[in-house]
Every structure is written in C-alpha cells, then in structure tokens.
C-alpha cells in the first residue's frame, strides 16, 4: 500500500509515474486503468460503454481475476487508515454482525442514480478512491492560483474524515457492508486464484482465525467445510498469521483445486 | 458527552469557524474568478466551463468524467498547469464539482500538447486531431484590441497554434482588424500573448458563443462599415482611455 501511495504521490512533484487516483489512473503514460465500479457508474451515466473505458478495465479485471479482492487488503489506503484508527481506539471490538447483502443494494442504488441523473455522483463526490488523491491535487491547484479548488480539497477531506468517523462508530462497517467498489471486487473471489488454502494439518478449533478476521468471514467454518470462497475475504492474511497451528490449517496461497485432501 | 458545559463550546466555535472559513473562501473564489472591469468582453457572462481538449459535448463529458485527476496530473507533469478542478461555485454549476476545467487562460492556456485526451481512462476526453478540438471560441474585444484601434499587432495570430486559417484580417485604415473565425479551437494561447493589459481576447464555451454570436457579428459589421468620423470618435473618445489605462505589455507579445 505504501508503495502505491509513493508511486501515486510522485505526480504531485510533476513526476509522471502514476497519474490520477485509484478511481482512474495512467501508468507511466502507457497504460490507463479504471476502477470497475467507477467504470460501471460512468458508463451507466453515459448510457453507453466507451471503448477507452473497456480498455482501461482490462488490466484491472485481469489482476482481480488473479488476486480476488486483494485490493481491499493490500492496496486500499482506507485499509491502512482504518487500521490506524483501530489502534487509536482504546477498546478492542470485533466487527458487528451486519448482513452482507447491503453492499449490493447500495451499489445498485448508486448505479440507478447514475443512470437516471447522468452523472457518476458516487465516484465524483463520495468515493474514497477519488477523494484521497483529489485532496493533494486540489491543494496543489490552490497553490498554483485557483482558489476555488479549496472547496474541493475541503470536501474531500470531510469525506475521508467521515469514513474514519464511521470506522470509529462501527469497525469495518464500510468495508463489509457499504463500499460499493469492494462489493464489486468481492465477486472476483468466486473464481480468483489467490484464496484461503485447504487444511494440511488438523484444525484445533481455536477460532483464532475468526477473531482475527475483521471482515466477518467465518474462516474456520469455511476451511473445515472445504469451501474456501467468500466474497468478503480481502486476502489480508490475518487468519493465517493468527492460526495456532502456524501455516497448517489456514493459509493464503495460489491453489489450483480448492479441495485437495480429505479432512 | 452531551452536556452544555464550556467544554463543548470550543467544538461549536470550531465548527462555526470552519463553516465561516469555507464560506469566505467560496465567496472570495467567486470574486477572484469573476472578471473585473479589466477583463475583455466582461459583459458576456460565462456560465459554463472550458473543458480540456478531447471533450465532445458537455453532457457526455460530465457523464463519463469520474474526477480521477489524470488529465490534471499530466498537464502538471508537462508543466503547463492549465487544468484545474472545478468546485461548482465557480461556473458550471454544482454538477461540475470535481471535474477538470481551464480557468486562467491569460497565464495558463492550453498548449494543445494533446497528452491528456489519450490518457483519460473513462473516455470523457477522447483522442483527436488538434483541429477537431472544441474547447471553446476566442472572441476579440474590438474596444481594446490594438488592431482595431489604429495599430497593427499580429501577436494573437502568431501565437495561434492552428495557424493562419483561424484568422481573417480586414486590413483597413484603422489597423489590421483581426477576426477569429469558426476554425478556432479555444486553446487560449492568443489570450496569453495579447499585449493589451488584461488581454483583448476572451475564450467562451461553444454554448455561450452560439448565444452571443449574432450580437457580436453585428458589432463587427457595424465597425467595418462605420463612416470615418464616427469611427474616429469611437476609437479616440470611447476606446482610447481604456486602452491607455490598461497599457501595452510588450513582454507579452509573441516572439
């Protein structure tokens, strides 16, 4: 995540490494990338796909098909900010149980709004993928003589703070139940290559993995049942590191066939 | 903690102060962006925004733009700094929030390097030839243009990247009298290099251009067909005080 932030940060020093934000970016001036949910919203608002948008989706979809929802666990800056927030919280609370399907309804509502309103409202105003990078960009614009951009910077800051406030109120509620981008990425988990690996040593049923997972995945149940795909899994690996049998029952790996052994 | 003790007063003050600051900045930015009396064609009110090159019609542009910032980033990387972020309070309406726009053509016009259209991930900006760009239209303010008030100045046409086909010269006794025709793409380089203080050219959106065109062309024809003594009065009594007040910025002229 830090690497991504550094690479993206170079653009503010006029270095053409990664330009743009996590909603849409240009890699070294050669490849353009587009966030899948941003693409959906944009094409819904325009009532038609754009060849460039589809082209920009390809590398992203390819990576997600391989790594599943790993973006959330490894690249999303909110993951790091939420982890910091968790450390600032005195109490250690596990995520409250919230039904998973809410993410889908919110995503659908946003796309319907884009279709009817003709503007990708969520990605432009509310998406953390946009706001995190628009904040320094807008501040830079102010410094370069566009005072109006300050309003954009302030808005982006408010949106990020609101997410952090939500995190304080209910840990990972955003990631688990609300974030429409994450909800879209979750679907890639159904056929991606990187995921929870099956048991190679007997599980001691300590539930350490369940407690470590802040996405609310019932890790132990899935591992024991041999079914390893979960749309909430962000492949962060905490289940594996907290597993008492250390790399036995629960680990993340690229596996060809999820069910290789009898338990 | 929901008490009304003095401990909560600082929080209220902070919120009020922040709201006041934001409001002040918004008001200030509107003033800063509002053209003063010094600006060319100040009576033409521009409600829209000048978009980066590669934008086709405004509705499709707004639908596809996801405020990713790539275009602004590459413009900054090329050191042109022409693209800024619209806040919604400075033209374009609230729906333009977060979208890229060119604000200050006098200092940071678009140079038509055409790097941004090829890098827009969502297709809001589309790659195209320079001639196909439809950023806006440049309008010359005949009241302060040197070429319309007794001088021969070719700075704007020299600065124009589209070349001679954009400029029509109605050379006459009162100067070379340039007219920018419809081949103009609206990049704004002429605005920057105009030696008139505050510039004698204003780039407007195509929509605004369509609205003002009839009146603008009427004034143009009026000037061309004006009898000599009336033209003398217009130039020396109406225009000259303003021209002298704004001055000629020799360093601006296109070399």
Layout of strands and helices, then pairs:
The complex is a heterodimer of chains A (263) and B (255).
Chain A lengths: L1 H8 L8 E3 L3 E4 L3 E4 L1 H11 L4 H17 L2 H6 L1 H12 L13 H16 L3 H6 L1 H16 L5 H21 L3 H6 L1 H7 L7 E3 L11 H5 L6 H7 L12 H5 L9 E3 L9
Chain B lengths: L8 H25 L24 H7 L5 H8 L5 E3 L14 E3 L13 H4 L17 E4 L14 H5 L7 E3 L8 E3 L8 H5 L7 E4 L1 H19 L3 H19 L9
Antiparallel strand pairs in B: 1-2, 3-6, 4-5
Would you summarize the structure shown here?
With 263 residues, chain A is mainly α.
SSE ordering of chain A? HEEEHHHHHHHHHHEHHHE
- Give the radius of gyration of chain A: 20 Å
Helix/strand class of chain B: mainly alpha
The run of helices and strands of chain B is HHHEEHEHEEHEHH
- β-sheet strand percentage of chain A: 5-15%
Would you kindly provide a written description of the structure presented here, covering whatever features stand out?
The complex is a heterodimer of chains A (263) and B (255). With 263 residues, chain A is mainly alpha-helical. Helix content of chain A is 54%, strand content 6%. Chain A starts with a helix and ends in a 9-residue tail after the last strand. Chain A has a 3-stranded antiparallel β-sheet with strand order 1-2-3. Chain B is mainly α and 255 residues long. Chain B is built from 8 helices and 6 strands. In chain B, the strands form 3 sheets. A two-stranded antiparallel ribbon of chain B has the order 1-2. Chains A and B meet through strand 2, strand 3, helix 2, helix 3 and helix 7 of A and helix 1, helix 2 and helix 3 of B.
């Amino acid at each position: 995540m830090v690497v991504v932030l550094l690479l993206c940060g170079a653009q503010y020093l006029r270095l053409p490494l990664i330009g743009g934000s996590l909603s849409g970016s240009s890699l070294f001036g050669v490849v353009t990338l587009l966030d899948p949910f941003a693409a959906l919203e944009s094409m819904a608002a325009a009532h038609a796909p754009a060849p460039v948008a589809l082209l920009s989706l390809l590398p992203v979809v390819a990576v997600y098909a391989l790594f599943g929802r790993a973006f959330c666990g490894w690249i999303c800056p909110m993951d790091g900010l939420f982890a910091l927030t968790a450390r600032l919280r005195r109490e250690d609370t596990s995520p409250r149980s919230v039904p998973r399907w809410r993410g889908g309804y919110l995503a659908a509502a946003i796309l319907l709004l884009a279709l009817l309103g003709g503007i990708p409202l969520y990605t432009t105003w509310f998406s953390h993928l946009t706001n995190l990078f628009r904040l320094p960009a807008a501040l830079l614009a102010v410094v370069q003589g566009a005072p109006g951009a300050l309003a954009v910077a302030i808005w982006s800051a408010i949106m990020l703070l609101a997410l952090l406030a939500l995190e304080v109120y209910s840990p990972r509620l955003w990631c688990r139940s609300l974030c429409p981008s994450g909800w879209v990425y979750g679907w890639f988990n159904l056929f991606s290559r990187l995921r929870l690996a099956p048991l190679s040593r007997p599980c001691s049923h300590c539930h350490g993995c369940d407690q470590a997972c802040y996405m609310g995945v019932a890790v132990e149940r899935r591992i024991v049942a041999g079914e390893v795909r979960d749309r909430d899994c962000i492949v962060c690996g905490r289940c594996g590191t907290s597993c008492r049998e250390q790399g036995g029952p629960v680990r993340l790996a690229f596996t060809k066939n999820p069910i290789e052994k009898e338990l | 903690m929901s008490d009304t003790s003095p401990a909560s007063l600082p929080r209220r003050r902070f919120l009020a102060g922040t709201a006041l600051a934001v409001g002040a900045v918004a008001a200030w930015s509107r003033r800063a962006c509002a053209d003063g009396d010094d600006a060319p064609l100040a009576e033409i009110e521009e409600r829209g925004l000048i978009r980066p090159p590669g934008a086709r019609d405004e509705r499709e542009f707004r639908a596809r733009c996801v405020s990713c910032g790539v275009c602004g980033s590459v413009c900054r990387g090329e050191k042109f700094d022409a693209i800024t972020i619209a806040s919604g309070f400075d033209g374009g309406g609230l729906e333009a929030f977060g979208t890229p726009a060119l604000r200050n053509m006098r200092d940071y016009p678009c140079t038509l390097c055409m790097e941004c259209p090829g890098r827009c991930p969502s297709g809001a900006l589309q790659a195209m030839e320079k001639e196909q760009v439809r950023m806006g239209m440049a309008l010359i303010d005949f009241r302060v243009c040197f070429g319309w008030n007794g001088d021969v100045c070719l700075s704007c046409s020299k600065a124009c990247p589209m070349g001679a086909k954009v400029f029509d010269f109605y050379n006459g006794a009162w100067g070379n009298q340039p007219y920018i025709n419809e081949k103009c793409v609206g990049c704004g380089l002429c605005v920057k290099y105009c030696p008139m203080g505050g510039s004698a050219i204003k780039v407007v959106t195509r929509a605004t251009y369509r609205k003002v065109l009839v009146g603008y062309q009427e004034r143009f024809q009026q000037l061309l067909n004006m009898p000599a003594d009336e033209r003398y009065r217009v130039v020396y009594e109406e225009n000259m005080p303003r021209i002298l007040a704004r001055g000629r910025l020799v360093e601006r002229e296109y070399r």
